[in-house]
Write a structure and sequence with these properties.
single chain; alpha/beta; Rossmann fold; six-stranded mixed sheet; 10 strands; 11% strand
Length: 366
């Protein structure tokens, strides 16, 4: 037998061809299941899902972690009487990811049907701030007409809670509506303090809001206290709204007319937040989404912002850092972008207030 032609034929076959032929012998279903498994691992890590962790703990959840001044009688009283703070937290199993929870609320979390009663508050510099009220009567009695007056009576002693939304949110945001609706259903009078230029209200001055601007909140609190002196006054801030609220509490301390306050998801250190939001692909999606929201805000008020800030830079901004550099820094007359974050960080430093409670170290504020 002539082995030379056979040997030559084998030598002419590429090892890659042999590998491909071997791989072709593996059933397609094996590739499908392998690809699906790898995709699930990637998705699990990318979305930061913690279902397996919950499963290993038999869905018992994690104990609530509290940081507060143990010498404060007020803090001890709140912790003792708030049973939810003594329990454990377990996320809904099929929403065991912060990103899934955010997406669900944004796209599928239908807000309750409600209609606010609007009061337009004029700031000291001519700016206009929309205050949207919601009461127990509005929730129980059905939708009410939009009125240019507040819902509470001057002699009413029903507690009032001021809600300060996040960076690009207003009273129409789903999570704000859920919060306002549930508070009103519990018997509170709720007023959502929309940031300047939001809530369908035009900018009527050259002043815009930011994470370090507390003067609007201060004037609104003083205004509501003056209008309804018999009603206990509370405040709830979310995200940037929480940052503004905590900074205000630090500035006014025990002189604030607020009886209590809660800061939800407050970005305590904006320098660290700025770095974190550019660290991973998922965080960069949030960065881009917030930037688009701010650009939409700028578009609504182009006639003013194009005169005061770098409009071309605003339009081309691809991140919060870019937007702050072309808008926030210019509007507030900061020398450089780092000054914005450093100043806000200093302004939000821990301070003593409310019977010695250390705000800067608390995950939950009362």
């Amino acid at each position: 037998m002539d082995w030379e032609p056979l040997a030559a034929a084998k030598a002419s076959i590429s090892p890659y061809d042999l590998l491909f032929q071997a791989l072709a012998l593996i059933p397609f279903s094996h590739y499908f299941f392998a690809a699906s498994f790898l995709f699930l691992i990637f998705l699990y890590s990318f979305l930061e899902i913690h279902f397996l962790q919950d499963l290993l703990t038999l869905f018992r959840g994690d104990p609530v972690t509290l940081n507060y001044n143990s010498c404060s009688e007020l803090a001890q009283s709140v912790v003792a009487n708030c049973k939810i703070l003594q329990g454990r937290y377990l996320a809904t199993p099929w929403l065991s990811s912060p990103h899934l929870q955010t997406a669900f609320l944004s796209f599928l979390g239908r807000p309750p049907p409600l209609t606010y009663r609007r009061h337009l508050f004029r700031a000291f510099d001519g700016g206009t701030i929309a205050l949207d009220w919601l009461t127990y009567t509005d929730v129980v009695g059905g939708t009410s007409c939009m009125l240019d007056s507040s819902a509470a009576l001057k002699g009413d002693k029903t507690p009032i809670v001021i809600v300060i939304p996040g960076l690009t949110s207003d009273s129409a945001a789903a999570y704000v509506k859920h919060l306002a609706f549930n508070l009103a259903r519990q018997g509170w009078n709720v007023v959502v303090s929309n940031h300047r230029g939001l809530g369908g209200v035009s900018l009527t001055s050259d002043c815009c809001y930011n994470a370090g601007w507390t003067e609007d909140l201060r004037k609104i609190i003083d205004h509501i206290r003056c209008e309804y002196p018999e009603a206990p006054l509370y405040a709830v801030g979310t995200s940037i709204g929480a940052n503004i609220l905590v900074k205000y509490l630090g500035e006014d301390g025990a002189n604030t007319p607020l009886v209590g306050a809660a800061a939800i998801c407050s970005p305590w250190d904006l320098l660290i937040c700025d770095r974190f939001i550019n660290r991973r692909p998922m965080q960069k999606l949030y960065d881009r989404a917030l930037t688009v929201g701010l650009q939409g805000y700028a578009q609504l008020h182009q006639s003013i912002l194009s005169r005061l800030a770098n409009w071309e830079g605003i339009e081309k901004s691809s991140s919060l850092r870019d937007f702050d550099n072309h808008a926030t820094r210019v509007l507030r007359k900061f020398e450089c972008l780092s000054c914005v974050s450093v100043l806000w960080m200093i302004q939000c430093a821990p301070v003593k207030l409310f019977h010695g409670m250390n705000v800067g170290s608390m995950k939950i504020l009362f």
